[in-house]
Amino acid sequence: MSAPSLATLISGIPSTLGSYGPVLKKIDAAMQSPQCNLVTLGEAIEIDPDLTARLLRLANSSFYGFSSRVSTVTEAISLIGIQQVQDLILASSIVERFSGISDEFVSMESFWRHSLACGLTARLLAMELRLPQADKCFVAGMLHDIGRLVLLSEAPQIALEIFTLYRQERLLLREAEQRVLTFDHQQIAAALLKEWNYPGSLIEVVACHHQPLLAKANVQQACAVHVADYLVHALELGSSGEAYVPALNLKACEKIHFHTGMLSAVIARIDEQIEAVEDAFLHSVQPS
Amino acid sequence: MPNLKTELLREGMVVISDVKNLHDMLLIPAGAVLSERQIGILQAWGVADVEVEHSKATEETDPVAGLSEETRERLQAEIRNRFWDPDDSNPFFVELSKLLLQRRASKVTVNS
């Protein structure tokens, strides 16, 4: 079977935001208004009770670690920031958009567990190491392997060929992708995010997570996601199909001043936060 | 030498390498005999674990020390085989392998 081009792979994926579209449009409209304030933004989000419950659950979890209880969406926005709230909604919309993929090669529950763990670890590293835009690291970590979902949903026959080669020849999954396609899941993700008009900074981090030093404007964030991916693989927090813990680029650790003495504390924080983040993004919310 | 989780530390254990916080500030120097107050300081700073001298007390609290040699070797091999590039000159691999062994050992201890 001939390998599809990057453009063919992403052409069948709708650019709509699914059930989150109306909320994001309302937020956009509220932000355009001269009367925009926290209350109008809160009202825009509250049209979706499921999203409201998820947001409050996350705001009250160890992920943010606020000292007092956050009980309204308005409070959550004032503490977290509207940009981060929008990022969280976009990330949720992507989980929704790729739902329904067969578990034949990768369990979707396991895929999203890996992705969320990578996102929260990249954010933790960025916060501990005082890197800029720590919250952007969460979204980049969460989307870093989204190219694999494109393969599984849009080209299952090619995915079968890749997984067969990977198992037979004891390769890294990324190497098998390159052999079959001449490109890998990093380039697929970058092409898709570009098509969806995501910010260039996010695209660069996702596109370079295996070779973070190739990033130009966002090299520290790319290094944070690279190290996070290594740790999350090692801790067996979900899987995006790769059975091995990929190689760690030590220069990436140096670039963000991450040292071995920090490993234990970072792992303890990951263990603390993973459940809360999974609850907010993956599990259905029961109406109270 | 065992790395013990902070909550498992006991008064009288001997610290064998400097304990620093995330800002590289020295909290407890190597060689110190731990007091209750020092354990409190480590907990307050969120230090997850500390390298201490092997003793009867560590054997009782460290899940790895409680493993048979055969089980420890099996777990170590399982961990190593999961890495694409298990390089013993990579300090992250070495430290992470130690921490992963403790995680696996805790599960073995809980399940046994």
The proportion of residues forming helix of chain B, as a percent range, comes to 40-55%
Share of residues in helices of chain A: 55-70%
Shape type of chain A: globular
Oligomer: heterodimer
Describe the largest sheet of chain A.
Answer: none
Rounded radius of gyration of chain B (Å): 15 Å
Structural class of chain A comes to mainly alpha
| Rg value of chain A | 19 Å
Secondary-structure element pattern of chain B, one letter each: EEEHEHHH
Structure description:
The complex is a heterodimer of chains A (288) and B (112). Chain A is an all-alpha fold and 288 residues long. Chain A is 64% helix and 0% strand. Chain A contains 16 helices and no strands. The model of chain A has no long low-confidence stretch (mean pLDDT 89). Chain B has 112 residues and is mainly alpha-helical. Helix content of chain B is 45%, strand content 10%. Chain B has a two-stranded antiparallel ribbon with strand order 1-4. In chain B, strands 2-3 form a two-stranded antiparallel ribbon. In chain B, a hairpin with a 5-residue loop joins strand 2 and strand 3. In chain B, helix 3 packs across helix 4. Chain B is globular, with a radius of gyration of 15 Å. The two termini of chain B are 24 Å apart. At the A-B interface, helix 14 and helix 16 of A face helix 4 of B.
Question: What is the strand and helix layout of this fold?
Answer:
The complex is a heterodimer of chains A (about 290) and B (about 110).
Chain A: H1 6-11, H2 21-32, H3 38-46, H4 49-59, H5 73-80, H6 82-97, H7 108-128, H8 134-143, H9 146-154, H10 156-169, H11 173-181, H12 185-195, H13 200-207, H14 219-234, H15 250-255, H16 263-281
Helix pairs in contact in A: 2-3, 3-5, 4-16, 6-8, 7-8, 7-14, 7-16, 8-13, 8-14, 9-10, 9-12, 10-11, 12-13
Chain B: E1 3-5, E2 19-20, E3 26-28, H1 36-44, E4 49-51, H2 56-61, H3 69-82, H4 91-111
Antiparallel strand pairs in B: 1-4, 2-3
Helix pairs in contact in B: 3-4
